[in-house]
Amino acid sequence: MIEVQHLTKRYGRVTAVDDVSFRVERGEILGFLGPNGAGKTTTMRILTGYMPATEGKAIVAGFDVFDQPLDAKRRTGYLPETPPLYPDMTVLEYLEFVAKIKGVAGPERKQRVNAVIERTRIGDMSSRLCSKLSKGYRQRVGLAQSLIHNPDVLILDEPTAGLDPKQIIETRELVKELAGDHTVILSTHILPEVSQTCQRVVIINKGRVVAVDTPDNLTARLGGSQTIYLQVDAGESDPSVVLGTIAGVMRVVETDRHEERVGYEVESEQGHDIRRDLARTVVTSGWGLLELRPMRLSLEEIFLSLTTEETDAPAAAGGETANG
Amino acid sequence: MGNILAIAQKELKSYFSSPIGYVLIGFWAFLFGWFYINILAYFARASMQMAGMGGPQSVNINQDMIRPLLYNVTILVLFVLPGVTMRTYSEEKRSGTIELLLTSPITDFQIIMGKFLGAMALYALMLVVTWIHVGVLFIYGHPEWKPLVGAYVGLLLLGGCFISIGMFISSLTKNQVVSFMVTFSIFLFFWIISWISSSVGPTAASVVTYLSIVDHYDDFGKGVIDTTHLIYYLSFITFGLFMTAKSVDSERWRG
User: Fold this and answer.
1) Left if phi > 0, otherwise alpha if psi is -120 to 50, otherwise beta: which for A235?
2) What CATH number labels A224-295?
C-alpha cells in the first residue's frame, strides 16, 4: 500500500531524512518512532505530497507522490502535528469545506460529513467555532478531517500529543478500529503507544532507519539476557557472593542500599528462570526477602539503546541498559 | 473550477467571519464619502459660478465630478488593498492550514486563483459601495453612464494588479504586519514611480511612466478601454500570480 524507497531530504546542508526505505501492507498500522527532530514529520510530509524529496521515491496507494500527486492525495488522509483548522469556521463548515477540496462529490458530502462526525464523536461540537475547541476536540476534528474522503491511507503525525489519558485511550481505540479499511502510519515519540496500537514499528533516528520490526520481535531481539531485581534485608552478611553461585547467574550488581536493605540486579542466561532458586537461597540463608521482580527490557530501553550514540552494538545494549 | 470556487468562497467568507472585512469596507466607505463630499462641494461651486457668468461653456458632471472622484479610488486602494491581501497566505502559514491545502487533491494554480478571486470579490464589493454615491448623481443630474463602465473596468483591473502583488508578498511571510507594510510600500512605489520621469532621460522616463500602474488608468477614467492598457494590466496580474505560484512552490522545496 505504501512503499518508500531510498528517500532522502536535504535542507541546504542539513540532511533531515537519509536513505529511508520501508513498506506498509494494506490494513496495517505502522508506528513511526523516533525522538523529536528525527525526521518523522519530514517523511510524512513527503508521503502526503506536501514537499518533494531530494532523492528516492514514495508510492502511496499505487501512485508516485511526485509524478501523480493528485491521484496519491485523493487516497491519502493526513493529520499534521497541529490540526489544520480555520479558527473562524464552525466545525460543520470546516468539514464541509474540507470535503469539497478533497473531492467528495456534492450528493455524498452531507453523508460523509455526518459519518466522520459520528465516528470521531464530535457531534455535540459541530456548531462551535474551531477557535473555541479544546485541545482534545481540535485533535478529533483534525482526525475527522483526515477521514472525510474515506482515504485508503491515513497518515497521522502524533495524533495523541497533548491529550489527556482518557482521550489518548479513545484515540488509540479509534485508530485501531480504522486499521481494517485503512492503512495507517502513525508517528509518535511515546513508546507504549507503539506497543499498544501498532503491528510494526519503524524506529528512526537522525533521519536514518535504525530498526523495522514488530514490537514483540524488537523486545526479543535485544533482550539477550534477563535481569531480575532483588531486594533483601541481609543484616551484616554480604549476599552477593552466595547469589553468584546459583546456577545460571551471570552477574550480580549492587544497585542501591538503604541501611540494612540492599538491592541487586541479578543477570541470568536467556531461557533460564532463576527466580525460584533465588527466592529459596534468600530464605534458607535467613535473610528477609523484600522484593523480587523481573526487569523486562522495555521498548523504552530498546529505543534508547538504538537511538543513543554511545551504544556500539544492539547486543551489548541489551546488557548495559539494565538500570534504565 | 469547482475547487477554485470552493477556495474563493472560503476566502470571501473568512473576511466576514472576522472583523477585518467590516473594518476594511467601513474605512473604504468613510474615506470615499469624504472625497465625494469635497469634490461635490467643489463641483457645485464651480457650476454655480459658470451659471452666474452665463457663458456658453458649462461644467460637465462626467468630466468634472465623476472622473476626479473615481481617480481618488486609486489612492484608496493603496491603503485598503494591503489589508485585503495581507492574510491570504500569511494566515494559512501561521496557523498551519497551508498543510491542509497543499496535501489536498487540488493544484497550486487552483489555490492561487481561488484566493485571487476571493480577494477580488471583496474589492468588487467595495466598488459596489461607491455606486451609492454615484447613484445619487444620477438622481439629481444627468451623467453619461457609458464612460463609467470603462472607469470601473479600469479600477477592477488596477486593483487586480495590486492584489496579485499583495498575494505574492503575503506568500513570503507568516507575519501579517510585515505582509501589510511591505505590500503598502511596494504599492506606493508603483504609484509614485513616474514622478522621476521629469528628471531622467527620455528612455528611462518612458519606461517608468509605462510601469506606473496609475498612469495606465487615465484612459480608463475617461471611459476609453484601450488594449494597450488592458494588456498592461492583464500581464501585470499574470506576473503577480506567477510570482506567487513560484514562491509557494519554492517554499515546498525549502520546507
Assistant:
1) left
2) 3.30.70.3190
Q: Which of A146, A170, A175, A144 is nearest to A79 (CA)?
A: A146
Residue in chain B lying closest to A14 (CA): B254
Interface test with A, best of B12, B99, B176, B253 (most A CBs within 10 A): B99
Backbone angles phi, psi at B244, to 5 degrees: -60, -45
A239 touches chain B (CB under 8 A): no
The answer, for A145 touching chain B at a CB cutoff of 8 Å, is yes
Of A50, A98, A102, Cβ closest to residue B102: A50
Beta-bridged to residue A79, according to DSSP, are A156
Backbone angles phi, psi at B224, to 5 degrees: -100, 125
Please report the pLDDT score of residue A47 as a whole number. 93
* Architecture, CATH, for domain A2-220: 3-Layer(aba) Sandwich (3.40)
Q: Domain extents for chain A?
A: 2-220, 224-295
Instruction: Please choose, from the candidates B203, B213, B206, the residue with its C-alpha nearest in 3D space to the C-alpha of residue B233.
Output: B213
pLDDT 10s digits, A171-217: 888 888 888 788 999 998 777 777 778 888 888 888 888 888 887 77
Q: Is A55 on the interface with B (CB under 8 A)?
A: no
- With beta carbons under 8 A apart, name residues in chain A contacting B113: none
